[in-house]
Specification:
alpha/beta, six-stranded mixed sheet, single chain, seven-stranded mixed sheet
């Protein structure tokens, strides 16, 4: 019986490999959130239905495909995988369960910078979150870091880069930011849009329209663009005149939702203004790098998530709604459910509450729900 890590499963997703997943969580949890891959097949049978043995499901498991058993934390999947092995099948279990899947970050190099340096995207495959690191001449900046801060600090150390700046494009509601923790650990400046920071309990650098931060002596600039809509303070970045870090305003297959602070009616107009005017004035050659992805089909062949702005204006439905009333209806009605524990997550990111690590894990379990299609 073998353990399969979240990293190993991620590589199967990226390489479009086949995998048969027996998910032994309850049906509601499975339907809400599962491991997704283009060539994955699934069977959902709750663990409690297998306590008397796996014989009733053996004919539903293909003999010619790799088999992975998945549960919430690991224990149940180990037990079921052991029963499958005793029944003559080769079975692996997901090490750490769906909690480990939720936390895994896969760094992907997305490009070189014009005067030297590199841009990396950190893909949180199980949660749909995307973070970024810009490295130039021994300095690094991080954008929209997750709470798994060691991944970023260790990666920067491997690249011999000192973290100088940490940014959040907005006050996140679907996951806990690691930005402030990284800044405290490294002495970096922590930047946050002031319009999203009116209730925060800590000091920060004010991220405002037109701010320009230089990374390294190669003069790689990160230029802030005020782009409200998802939140009132949402701010995008143009990096090196090549990349548009759009936060939760624009995604590859969808657009941001304006309702997570209860302001859908007020912020729908801001969202349209950002997408249809501010972004329209930018170069169509900019490569859009969002803070989230919604569906597995948004992954590129190398596992990254990106697309040229001009292509999105041609193909993304949310950028092609002529009637403003129809646009407002899209972003304020028939919205997906709110993210799990989103109000607690907002308060954590404001510094108002300080849940322990296990509580933070529980708060984040489930998919991100920052987009509307």
């Amino acid at each position: 019986m073998k353990a399969m890590t979240a990293s190993e499963v991620t590589k199967k997703v990226i390489h479009n490999e086949e995998l048969f997943i027996l998910d032994v969580r309850n049906e509601t949890d499975f339907n809400d959130w599962k491991i997704e891959g283009k060539n994955f097949e699934y069977l959902n049978v709750p663990y409690f239905d297998l306590l008397d043995g796996v014989e009733p499901i053996l004919d539903k498991i293909p003999a010619d495909k790799e088999l992975l058993v998945v549960c919430a934390k690991e224990g149940s999947s180990v037990m079921v995988a052991k029963m499958l092995e005793e029944a003559g099948l080769d079975a692996s279990y997901l090490a750490g369960g769906m909690k480990s899947w939720s936390e895994h970050l896969e760094p992907v190099k997305v490009g070189d910078l014009k005067d030297g340096g590199e841009m990396y995207q950190f893909v949180r495959i199980g949660k749909g979150c995307l973070s970024y690191m810009v490295i130039s001449n021994g300095e690094a900046a991080i954008v929209d870091a997750t709470r798994m801060t060691d991944v970023f600090t260790d990666f920067a150390a491997e690249k011999n880069a000192e973290i100088k700046h940490v940014f959040d494009t907005h006050l996140h509601a679907d996951h806990i930011s690691g930005g402030r923790k990284i800044a405290e650990k490294t002495g970096a400046s922590y930047w946050l849009p002031p319009k999203d920071a009116e209730e925060v309990t800590f000091e920060y650098s004010r991220l405002e329209d037109g701010n320009e931060v230089i990374i390294g002596s190669t003069k790689v600039s990160i230029q802030a663009i005020y782009s409200p809509g998802h939140t009132i303070g949402s701010t995008s970045f143009v990096v090196d005149d090549q990349y548009l870090l759009s936060g939760d305003i624009l995604f590859i297959d969808s657009i941001g939702r304006p309702d997570l602070a209860g302001k859908a009616g007020d912020w729908a107009g801001d969202l349209r203004e950002t997408l249809y005017k501010r972004y329209k004035d930018l170069s169509g050659e900019l490569v859009v790098m969002p803070a989230h992805f919604m569906i597995i089909e948004e992954l590129n062949e190398d596992g990254s998530v990106s697309e040229k702005l001009g292509t999105l204006f041609a193909e993304n439905h949310g950028l092609n709604i002529v009637d403003e009333g129809e646009f407002r209806k899209l972003v304020s009605e028939n919205l997906p459910p709110q993210p799990n524990a989103y109000q607690e997550i907002r308060e954590t990111n404001m510094g108002k509450i300080s849940p322990d690590e296990e509580k933070q894990r529980e708060m984040e379990i489930g998919p991100n729900r920052c987009a509307v299609r």
